[in-house]
Design goal:
The complex is a heterodimer of chains A (about 120) and B (about 110). Chain A is mostly beta strands and about 120 residues long. Chain A is built from no helices and eleven strands. In chain A, strands 2, 4, 5, 6, 9, 10 and 11 form a seven-stranded mixed β-sheet that branches. The relative contact order of chain A is 0.33. Chain B is globular. Classes of the chains: A mainly beta (about 120), B mainly beta (about 110). At the A-B interface, strand 4, strand 5, strand 9 and strand 10 of A face strand 4, strand 5, strand 9 and strand 10 of B.
Chain lengths: ~120, ~110
């Protein structure tokens, strides 16, 4: 199984709502990533979890709260978002290692619209 | 931070043409990745390179570590190759993405 799954595929939420994005993989990868992608731009790294611990937080506002409950699951909790947070949110996973690095596998993304 | 530049930004080709997309990066890396993103969002990893050349079907990727440059070639291009191609440099678990090349192959 070389698949990363993300739910939901689409999400529309108001600025006062609380919602969560979910990501799952069963490849035994111990690094998981959240990216944000605006239209016609490359993905921007938000968070990296390595062995279920947050290892990189790219100065993301606190209205985005990541969680890695186990080695297969990654959540992104959303609260009090702004319309400019509307984007495609991509999850990815890879093995962990130094040196030559490992291939990333991406999920299909969640298309988020904040109204 | 690793600066990753891609060229061209946009590319239109006739079906059957040979296509080259270039990528340059500014500092040493663990690996260089080529990714493909179709409309609708899904990203597929095409290649991971740390030296030399790799081939998969009609796709070929090369990297020159000394010159900090990589190329992605598509032979006998087809309309289904239309997508955005992104190169990304990797150091440890940190990825730096290029701005992408939007390829359109016309039948």
């Amino acid at each position: 199984d070389t698949e990363v799954t993300q739910t939901p595929k689409h999400l529309v939420m108001g600025m006062t709502n609380k919602k969560s994005l979910k990501c799952e993989q069963h490849m035994g990868h111990r690094a998981m990533y959240w990216y944000k992608q605006k239209a016609k731009k490359p993905p921007e790294l938000m968070f990296v979890y390595s062995y279920e611990k947050l290892s990189i937080n790219e100065s993301v506002p606190s209205r985005f709260s990541p969680e890695c409950p186990n080695s297969s699951l990654l959540n992104l909790h959303l609260h009090a978002l702004q319309p400019e947070d509307s984007a495609l949110y991509l999850c990815a996973s890879s093995q962990v290692g130094r040196g030559r690095g490992y291939e990333q596998y991406f999920g299909p993304g969640t298309r988020l619209t904040v109204t | 931070k690793n600066e990753v530049e891609q060229s061209p930004q946009n590319l239109t080709a006739q079906e059957g043409e040979f296509i080259t997309i270039n990528c340059s990066y500014s500092v040493g890396i663990s690996a260089l990745h080529w990714l493909q993103q179709h409309p609708g969002g899904g990203i597929v990893s095409l290649f991971m390179l740390s030296s030399g050349k790799k081939k998969h079907g009609r796709l070929i990727a090369t990297i020159n570590i000394q010159e900090k440059h990589s190329s992605l070639h598509i032979t006998a291009s087809h309309p289904r190759d239309s997508a955005v191609y992104i190169c990304a440099s990797r150091t440890g678990n940190q990825f730096y993405f290029g701005t992408g090349t939007s390829l359109t192959v016309i039948p």
